[in-house]
Predict the 3D structure of the following.
Amino acid sequence: MAAARTSRTKATPKKPAVARAKVAGAKASSAKVATSKPAKAKVKVAPPKGADVKATEPKAVAQQSSTASSSTLAESWARLEGWFAAHYPTLALKLRPPAAPKQIAAAEKALGVTFPADFRASLLVHDGQDDDPGVRLLPFAQRLGSLASLTRCWKDDRGLFDKAEMATRLEWLDATRRVRQVHLHPAHVPIAGSKYWDYGRLLLDFLPGPDGSAGQLIARDDVDFVYVCAGVGELLARTARGLEDGRIHVRATTYDSELVYLDKPGGKPVAPARFFA
């Protein structure tokens, strides 16, 4: 399936200031990547000489090192849960129990990757969220997927991946040169999305651009892929800090609540990618 062309020269995201994970009324396919959007003007950004643009498997690049510890991730989760308990006690986070080490190992084997240390540490606290939580804790996505759910999504994507076409897009980069604009690539491991895994997703990126690092956190935002931050550890820590210092606040929507990101406490809304940049 040919995916819609994506912009490679966006200097500043023009998306709304809040995560937009949509709640589908009926089951949608993970193939739904908004291919009906009109093509945008592009200026091809070539990778530097020697950049590995021919790799098609998750193990194509070296894993990023991570200093995140289990205690650090546990602390971030505790801060998030404590903040919501104090300020929005009726909102259901629907956090799942911890994953067992053997479950993590089985998922890594199925996906052909070794998870970054911070994501492993997060799984040892919560194996994602159940469907339809009362608040979207993460940008671009409705909920953090469980190991079983994200592995199933990744496997479903394999039948939809157009290797020949995506090979021509490996050199298409975002403005930061960290993210390759390839859809449904096996080296993009989804970790958060809607319960149907359509629309927005957060992904672990094991095939980064020349200026990126393996295991970085990226997002599928409409038809574009954007850099979010170095990893899950940073995402959770900065979200907890933002809620505590007033740079993130909670806004009710028709179906649930979402986080709104601000440029400063009490300031103006900004796009999630700009907030975490």
Observations:
- The CA atoms of residues 11 and 175 lie 6 Å apart.
- Confidence is low (pLDDT under 50) at residues 1-67.
